Request: fold
Amino acid sequence: MATNEQIKALRDATGAGVLDCKKALDQFNGDFDKALAWLNEKGLAAAAKKSARETREGIVEAYAHPGGRLAVLVEVNCETDFVARTPEFKELAHDLALQIASMSPQYIRREDVPAELVASKLETHKREALAEGKKPEIAERIATGKLEKFYQETCLMEQAFVKDDKLKVRDLITAAIAKIGENIVVRRFARYELGEEL
Reply:
C-alpha cells in the first residue's frame, strides 16, 4: 500500500495524477523507481498520440542577453490558451529561447534541412573518406555519421539541452507534452546577434 509521501514524491517527479501515482506504486509494491519508469513510459506513449493534434495557441517568448548583443524570439504553440498561461509552459518557452541563444540552431527539425544540402554534405563526406583510402561501405557509414553530427549541431530538436546535456531538446518537449497533457510545437524562431552577417 503506497504512502501519501510516496504518492506526493512520484507526482512531483512525473506530474501524473494522484490516482495514477497510487496505482503505479501499488502495482510495483512501493518500488519508486519501477513506478517512475512505468509512469514515464505511459506518459511518453500518450505524448506520441497527442503529436497529431492541432496547436493554435501559445506564446512568443523573447530573450535578450545582458548587454544587448544577442536576442531571440521563439514561437511555441499548444492547444489551449489556458495551457499557454501556465508557469510550466512559460518555463519551457524560456528554456527554448535560452537554447537558441546558446546553441544557435539553423533549423527546427532535421526534416527542415533542404534536401540538396543533405545530399551535398553526404557526397562531400563520402568523397573525403574515399580520398583517405576508406572502402566504399566504410565511406558511406562515415558520411552518415558526419551527417548525424551536422543534425545535432544545427537542428534545435536534435541538440543536447543546455541545462542537461543527457537530454535532447525533442525529449524535453516530449516530456512537457506528457506532463502538461497537450501537444506542443516549436513553430519558428529568430536569433539576432550584433554584427552578424545575414
Q: What stands out?
A: The chain has three domains: 4-50, 57-108+155-193, 115-145. DSSP finds eight helices and five strands in the chain. Strands lie at 57-64, 70-78, 160-161, 164-168, 185-193. The helical segments are 4-14, 18-27, 32-50, 81-84, 87-103, 115-131, 136-154, 169-180.
